[in-house]
Amino acid sequence: VRSTTVGAEARARNLLRDGGVARLLDEVGGLRTNAARRIYLEAASRADGLCRDQAVDIIRTAGRELTSSSRLRETLTGLAETLPAAWGLAAPLAEAASEIASSSEKGDALRDIVRLRPIEPADAPAVAAAVSTIASTSERGRTITAIHRLAPSTELATALLESADGLESSSERRRVLTELVAAPRLSEAAWARALDVASGIASTADKAHALTALISSAEPTARGCREWLLSTGEVVSSSLSADLLVEAAVRCPNEDDVWRAYLRRTERLGASGDQRRALLALLDRAGLSETVRTELVAAAERGIASRSDRQAVLDRVATVGPSDG
Asked: H helices within the chain, ranges in order?
């Protein structure tokens, strides 16, 4: 009888009375059914005088002892809903949720935890690590997006980029990256991680879309822009690469080192018309230094095969002064 649900609630009350929460949790592993284990765990969570450390023990015991995905998800959601919000607990709840075998049940549990608990910056790595254990690409992508919308913050978005880097689908990577880079401001480390996620996108169109979202949504530093410009080299389409450069001409900070990287990328475009378009976009940028203008002329003369496209750039240089835009 001890191993079944028959009389489990009464036994749990007796154990709590005689030995407290620790004694009750010690008995959970000896129960044969997940239903009985859940009864013990829920009884422990309702104990008089429960403290935060005991709540953490209950959560960890649930993650360790509940072998049914649905039972563990239901238990963790219940704990997330009933334990005092002031205790936080998002990190241990997420760690316990990582033990759920089913991708869909794990995703549901993590979304519930983020919906029901306050997410502090210190919780972000544990939440993201749990998301990374979701085997299904589509479920992981849905969970990343949902969590980011439920608790938008730079810290959580940065941590979730680690989870996004494991997505196998190009479209899912693009969709998730577009969502995450809309965070308030990405750190340099997060920017580099976002570029890693974009680099793993196999589809040229999806990669270009993701890189556009990154340069458009964030506030890139000079270093970030140089790294981003290197990443555009992975876009094999000359026209899409030119589109990206046109966007960079507007978004990147006006620094000579950035524009040198820009000019190197322009010279590698496969079509003269695309090279012309990228160079004209840069000439529209106000405040270019004379050094950059000189190097731009050299890039046009050296790299544009079409005489008419080359001349269009040179004519534009002649009509725009260093301080014009």
From this structure: 8-28, 34-45, 52-65, 69-82, 90-97, 103-116, 124-132, 137-150, 154-164, 170-180, 188-199, 204-217, 222-231, 238-251, 256-267, 272-283, 290-303, 307-319
